Amino acid sequence: MRRRRVTLLLVELLLVVTLATARGPPPPILRPRDGDPFDTLPKSFWQEFSSPFTDTPEGGDTDDSADSLETTTREPQPFFEEVFTATNVTTQLGSHVHLHCRVNDLREKTVSWVRRREDQLQLITFGLHTYSSDSRYQLEYQPPNDWQLLIQYANERDEGHYECQVSSHPPLVFLVYLTVVVPRVDIVDERGGAGADKFYKAGSTIELKCVISKVPQPTTYVTWKHGQRMLNYDTSRGGISVKTDLKPGGAISRLYIANANRHDSGNYTCALADVAETTVTVHVLNGENPAAMQHGSSTRWTPVAWTSLLLHFPSILMIFR
User: Fold this and answer.
1) Which of 24, 79, 111, 162 has the fewest other C-beta atoms within 10 Å?
2) Parallel, antiparallel, or unpaired: how do β-strands 111-117 and 160-166 relate?
């Protein structure tokens, strides 16, 4: 009986040793540091606690993080290509003029043109649509970013302030001031004298000079007429020539008619296209004194005339007493 108990104890001891050997060495005893109670927790605890928040699964979807970045990125705002937000444009009476408005990063915003008159705004265009009742106004879009306002056959009433507006927040405004210049046309003779009447002797050469000024866009399209007959390319009479020279801000056109006769008398008109013109009357005389035909001419007093008047002034007073 005693021997059986000893055998059972040996068997139990053997089992305990076998189990202890299979489990490996015992874990080390964790000793907390003074004032740091969290050091007593095993390292695996911190790894399991933090991994759901810091670890990224392999091959996982990162679209959510990209979307969050996009929502925090500010959308680009429209801006004008020009450095300054105001400009001046000059055009000639009767010409076509484009007012430019170049906008970058427009996206879904809208461009409109308005006319400002004192405190009133008149809508001309909105987007690609024209709302003005004046058919001379038209929106012309030139890719990639130029919203042009076209004004055809500009007149003096078109002069003033125009605004190109972008429907951003706050709105963007580009200012344009349009100046419409009215050309000046004068006809002078070969001595540079101006006047409504010009006198020439029969057989001489008629020479008229047309001086055109205040023209921002110089042109050679200057015409001469005798009554209703165009002279620029006239070959029926012969001896007629027209020469036009450009100069800064205008032009000078000369009309020559050789061997003048009485049929050359009449009205001569110099015209700048259909914009401006002026007319003089030419008289071809057969031996008459041109000075006698200066209707409405002013009298010029010479020093000799003034001296004679002063010497005879007492006698004139006696007559009226």
Assistant:
1) 24
2) antiparallel
DSSP letter assigned to residue 217: S
Classify residue 83 by its DSSP letter: S
- For residues 202 and 224, give the distance between their C-alpha atoms in angstroms, rounded to a whole number: 21
pTM: 0.57
**Element counts in the chain: helices (H) and strands (E):** 5, 20
Q: What are phi and psi of 124, to 5 degrees?
A: -105, -50
Distant-in-sequence, close-in-space partners of 204: CB < 8 Å, separation ≥ 6: 260
CA distance 42 to 27: 11
Q: How many CA atoms lie within 13 A of 272 on its CB side?
A: 28
Distances in Å between the Cα of 22 and the Cα atoms of 16, 176, 233 are 10, 93, 124
Q: Show the tokens assigned to 291.
A: 């000075």
Mean pLDDT by 10 residues, the chain (321 residues): 61 59 55 54 51 49 52 80 95 93 95 93 95 96 97 95 95 96 87 84 94 79 93 89 90 94 95 90 81 38 42 44 47
